[in-house]
Design goal:
243 residues
């Protein structure tokens, strides 16, 4: 294994993705995602995991050709659109702090860096997508002739499940549980969380309160204005965050 791009992909890009993913999950938990943006945002997170995980799995298992590159490019742009949807929704519902924002920059750029390295290693198959060069486009799906070490594939799969899929699935289940408790509380004439003194804030008010609505550069910490709005409507009672 003397190809530096392959070494970078296997031992740098993928581990950094795992690390950024689990740090992002901790940020979500700290901001009480289950009681704020809830299961909807957690579903979006699982969707983004699939959008990155599918091309990753294909690159590790199958021969990289025009088909694999085309799928990776399409899913990269889909992932970017989903990431925009995720943040646009999250900032209207919960506090998205500076650490989480910084982690997001990694989660957005890591797939791009991986894609560029894959394209660089298989340039003729990339240019073949546009009818350039002497290599015809190959859209056959076939296993690698020289597969990666089994121990590496098993390790990547297990770590992806343990640090990415399972935590975000737990996040989704926690959001659904909080939603059911809230609905149960409403049916009984009370708020499911027990916060009977909290005045509900509409989506429009929450979005208007977000610094993203007034600060393109994001000078303020997202979510602070929303917290201040809720506190002012509660007569100055500070928000008690769940743990």
């Amino acid at each position: 294994m003397d190809d530096p791009t392959l070494i970078i992909l296997m031992y740098f890009i993928i581990p950094i993705w795992f690390l950024a993913g689990i740090v992002d999950w901790f940020c979500h938990r700290r901001s009480n995602i289950s009681g704020t943006s809830g299961a909807k945002e957690s579903f979006i997170h699982l969707l983004m995991f699939a959008e990155v995980g599918i091309p990753l799995f294909m690159v590790l298992i199958f021969e990289v050709n025009s088909l694999i590159i085309a799928i990776s490019i399409v899913l990269f742009f889909v992932h970017e659109a989903t990431a925009m949807w995720d943040v646009s929704y999250a900032v209207t519902k919960r506090r998205v702090g500076p650490i989480e924002q910084h982690v997001h920059s990694f989660l957005e750029m890591i797939p791009l860096l991986a894609l560029v390295l894959v394209v660089g290693r298989h340039w003729p198959h990339f240019t073949a997508l546009f009818g350039i060069g002497g290599t015809p486009a190959d859209f056959a799906l076939q296993l690698k002739e020289d597969p990666l070490p089994t121990w590496y594939l098993v390790t990547v799969l297990l770590v992806a499940l343990a640090l990415e899929f399972v935590p975000y699935l737990e996040e989704l289940m926690r959001g659904l549980k909080d939603k059911n408790q809230a609905n149960s509380g409403k049916s009984n004439g009370t708020r499911g969380t027990g916060d009977t003194n909290v005045t509900p804030v509409s989506d429009a008010e929450a979005e208007a309160a977000s610094p993203y609505a007034t600060s393109v550069a994001g000078e303020e910490d997202p979510g602070v204005a929303l917290e201040e709005l809720v506190e002012s409507r509660n007569g100055g009672i500070p928000i008690t965050k769940k743990r």
